[in-house]
Amino acid sequence: AQSVTQLDSHVSVSEGTPVLLRCNYSSSYSPSLFWYVQHPNKGLQLLLKYTSAATLVKGINGFEAEFKKSETSFHLTKPSAHMSDAAEYFCVVSPHSGGSNYKLTFGKGTLLTVNP
Amino acid sequence: GAGVSQSPSNKVTEKGKDVELRCDPISGHTALYWYRQSLGQGLEFLIYFQGNSAPDKSGLPSDRFSAERTGGSVSTLTIQRTQQEDSAVYLCASSLEAGGGYEQYFGPGTRLTVT
To answer: Which of A42-46, B5-9, B59-63, B84-88 has the least mean pLDDT?
Structure first.
């Protein structure tokens, strides 16, 4: 079984300040972890993924996330927020291997607001 | 290149009617997935296709829901006798192969409203 908890449903930051979106996971298997972003009326876009290689993962648009097994966390960060970062962000887990390794389990999402 | 496309983008239907939602995956992608995004439940897995076969239908919420995939390409999700609780955004995704290392590419979704 696997699950994801996004600790904040809404995060508000000022443009140019750091972003931190928090995610904790639970998985019976060694997990693959992802962050997806959804802009209004747009499809989901993959920001970055962890699949058992380097624990610090760099993604698109300056985002990165660190896999911490001891804390079962995969928090998403960005040093400096841009107005275009305003969107909903989903933390996602799937088993890295095994019969259900295609099945994505999504968190409830964190809405990021960026203030000018 | 072309991404995953879905049609229609919006569908309003009366309770009790049947609806069909279409997904065109990225060419060459063998795996196809349907998800549902609703306010109360978030994003939920519905069904997975490998080629034309559906090894995992575990997420379909009731027997009113069915899906098929033909020619290893286009997929149709059918909801019979729609209910108001079926109102949601239905998302389709495809990946080159199935598995945790392969990115799932999502379409823009079909917003279904049952009145």
So the answer is: A42-46
